[in-house]
Write a structure and sequence with these properties.
This protein has 53 residues and is mostly helical. The protein contains two helices and no strands.
Length: 53
């Protein structure tokens, strides 16, 4: 179960980063969701720096 949660968290972060890559303006909600995703990945002990665009 924990591995599935980690995979979901990684996929969510990657999806958010894809959206951010195509975002042309400021999107406060997107930035907030990315911060939340980073906290969740950190809580799982996952280094997300390799996933950043």
């Amino acid at each position: 179960m924990m591995e599935e949660q980690k995979e979901v968290a990684i996929n969510r972060y990657v999806d958010l980063m894809r959206i951010k890559a195509h975002e042309t303006g400021e999107n406060k909600e997107l930035e907030y969701q990315i911060r939340i995703a980073k906290v969740k990945l950190t809580s799982f002990g996952i280094d997300y720096s390799e996933l950043e665009i």
